[in-house]
Amino acid sequence: MSREKQSVVIAGGGSTYTASIVMLLIENQDKFPLRKLRLYDNDAQRQEPIGKACEIIVKERAPEVEFTYTTDPEEGFSDVDFVMAHIRVGGLPMREKDEKIPLKYGVVGQETCGPGGIAYGMRSIPDVIELIDYMEKYSPNAWMLNYSNPAAIVAEATRRLKPDSKIINICDMPVAIKKSLADILGLDSENDIVDRYYGLNHFGWWTEMYDKDGNDLMPQLKEHVKKYGYASANDDITNPLLAEASWNDTFVKAKDLYALDPDTLPNTYLKYYYYPDYVVEHANPNHTRANEVMEHREKNVFEECRRIVENGTAEDTSIVPGEHAEFIVQLASALAYNTNERMLLIVKNNGAISNLDPEYMVEVPCIVSKRGVEPLAMGPVPTFQKGLIEQQVSVERLVVDAYLEKSYQKLWQALTLSKIVPSASVAKELLDDLIEANKDYWPELS
Ligand SMILES: NC(=O)c1ccc[n+]([C@@H]2O[C@H](COP(=O)([O-])OP(=O)(O)OC[C@H]3O[C@@H](n4cnc5c(N)ncnc54)[C@H](O)[C@@H]3O)[C@@H](O)[C@H]2O)c1
Ligand SMILES: O=P(O)(O)OC[C@H]1O[C@H](O[C@H]2[C@H](O)[C@@H](O)[C@@H](O)O[C@@H]2CO)[C@H](O)[C@@H](O)[C@@H]1O
Ligand SMILES: [Mn+2]
């Protein structure tokens, strides 16, 4: 069956993830054929090396695809079927501040959790809304698939500000965890695991995992996770993410998350909420994850793109697509070609978790077709998870309130309510520091 060709724009063209998504798109021309592929960024200098390298990749491997890169919204967003968005407002230097400011107060400093995530959310909201405005102006029938973090806060903001927009907010953490679990079980792919999962973004739990024949995988997985977390039992690391010490630690730490509730398997991000003391003790306040990313992923990607441009060929490139790229392209395929695939997505609850407010933005398995996404019923969550979710979702909603009302009070409440901030007084000191650090990005609060 021949598949209709698609036109895609990657917004945040200068992202460290762009080249791997382009590589995957190009390698999948039989499954997801393209007529046009564009990169869009609001920073020409940042985007240029990635744009030039991708131009070579496309020319060598799929010359029939029309490729361009631009900073002009009209050029970027016209005649588009899919917007794949992954912007980072303020870049990695602002991520560094999100991580280091809380650590000054002995509080977890993290990209999407706690005060760092709140600060990042306040920066991301207007720019993601701007991308939706461009999409709706120039390609009103397009879908936006959004990775831009913090996805939970962005999802709550888009629900409120753009309730009718065709945006789906997504996260690759569950896929990365399932990839490890598939390795552990000896399965070919994370797609061989069918799961039941509930929660918020970076804040959820699996209740069931079974294989395509309906066999229960949980007993074997629980035995493994109890001892090794989500890491491999031996040094035979197949998941490239685990070659990084900080990610390997996070995957091993999953065993302590599991210990707290052996009825479920946890999202790795719960470590920041269950064990904030451990996280702070093991953090270096002068060298955080943002520094590691700048020293490794960012440096490597930009060096490789410059090398491709200098050599004029990508024949021997080290750029490879991973599960991050696979997940977003799988979602686009399901929407374009009506595959009715089951995927974990961030959606309006609408009864999927029966004892939570229908308006909450939750992360649950959904069926994806050309009609959009339909969340599956996960039933009620137990008291432990319900208490945690109600607290965390209230933080996310207060951040959006604070953004919309330009309210100092609401943001102070959000920080105070965050499980990893010890008191209202620490929350206030943190808020005043974060306001100063974000003065070029946040609305003025009063
Ligand atoms: N949801 C997920 O699970 C998931 C997974 C991985 C990465 N991410 C997110 O993807 C994003 C990219 O991460 P990265 O490390 O590659 O960041 P990066 O800083 O390398 O790239 C982000 C790009 O966005 C551009 N940008 C910023 N504001 C923009 C705007 N308003 N319009 C257009 N472009 C804009 C920047 O110029 C930059 O080129 C981040 O938000 C990150 O948190 C999410
Ligand atoms: O610290 P970073 O920038 O390496 O990671 C932060 C992101 O972590 C998760 O994404 C992982 C993903 O799970 C994995 O598959 C692979 O693609 O690496 C990513 C990180 O590099 C998380 O889901 C994202 O929301 C974070 O931004
Ligand atoms: Mn994520």
Automatic annotation (TrEMBL):
Keywords of the record: Cobalt, Glycosidase, Hydrolase, Iron, Manganese, Membrane, Metal-binding, NAD, Nickel, Transmembrane, Transmembrane helix
- The answer to keyword Metal-binding applying to this record is yes
The cofactor note from the UniProt entry for this protein is: Binds 1 NAD(+) per subunit.
Which residues constitute the catalytic centre?
172, 269
Tell me which Gene Ontology terms the entry assigns under biological process. carbohydrate metabolic process
Binding sites annotated in the UniProt record for Mn(2+): 171, 202
Site, Increases basicity of active site Tyr: residue positions: 111
Identify the residues that bind substrate. Answer: 95, 149, 289
Q: Which residues form the Glycosyl hydrolase family 4 C-terminal domain?
A: 197-421
Signal peptide location: none
The membrane-spanning stretches of this chain are 7-26
Q: Which cofactor does it need?
A: NAD(+)
Q: In Gene Ontology terms, what is one molecular function of this protein?
A: metal ion binding
For this chain, the family text in UniProt reads: Belongs to the glycosyl hydrolase 4 family.
Q: What is this protein called?
A: 6-phospho-alpha-glucosidase
Organism the protein comes from: Suicoccus acidiformans
